[in-house]
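Encode chain A's predicted structure.
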Amino acid sequence: MTIKLIATDLDGTVIGRDFKFRPRTLAALQAAEHAGMTVLFVTGRPARWLDPLREQTTFDSYAICSNGAVLYHLGTDEVEEVNGTSAAVIERVNTILQAAYPQATYTLETLDTVYIQGSYEGGEVLEGARVVESTIERALAEIGDAPIIKFLIRVEGAEPTQLQSEIERLVGEYVFVTRGVVGEPLVEMGDPQVNKGVVLARFAARHGIDSSQVMAFGDMPNDTQMLHWAGTGFAMASGNPELIRSVGRTCPAFEQDGVAQTIEALLDGTLKL
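Encoded structure for chain A:
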């Protein structure tokens, strides 16, 4: 097996709640890079959250952020590609969802601003962003033609899987619908032609890499398309049960340094599929 690119989700896959790599995992990623492989981070997180990656890694890398909406170069701290959604599409989606969930919290993100309608708590999710409390209608008017990176709905008390299914039923023809946060009734939406797998495929093609030469890791539904596209995709054994069933191949749990174990076996030639 010749692997040229390792694509990995972040939270729950290679980093913990403190946004730090487990030492063995970081060492394995660095060993892969030293062996000539490209290491690509693929996350639902926005680019503004990724400063700690540069502080922990010594190799130049890229990150596909916001479920594919942004391609970000960690080495230069620059956004190189934006795959946003138009305000017209989000306006239609918002109208449908507001009628069904009038008490929900709605969040709309551009590259530098987070607009929030409804109750919310602060915390790391908003670090580095300009935060505006606003109705989504006013936000859309202010944004104009700027690309929308992500549109989110949070319905307090909802069961996450059921909520995603209902949102897909209501607006799935207009946007890509997914989830990326464990246990949270939070559904994320973006351009229907954009997901982690699509943008990973484009990145690989630009670097002359075929899907058969890609190994990928993830733990949540927003990793589904990436893990199916990669020639060798692993769901974390500690990950979302829906994802595990869909992918059909797992590596050991995050707590057991599953990504590190797999990369180590790849490098020493003992990996068995």
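The chain is about 30% helix and 20% strand.
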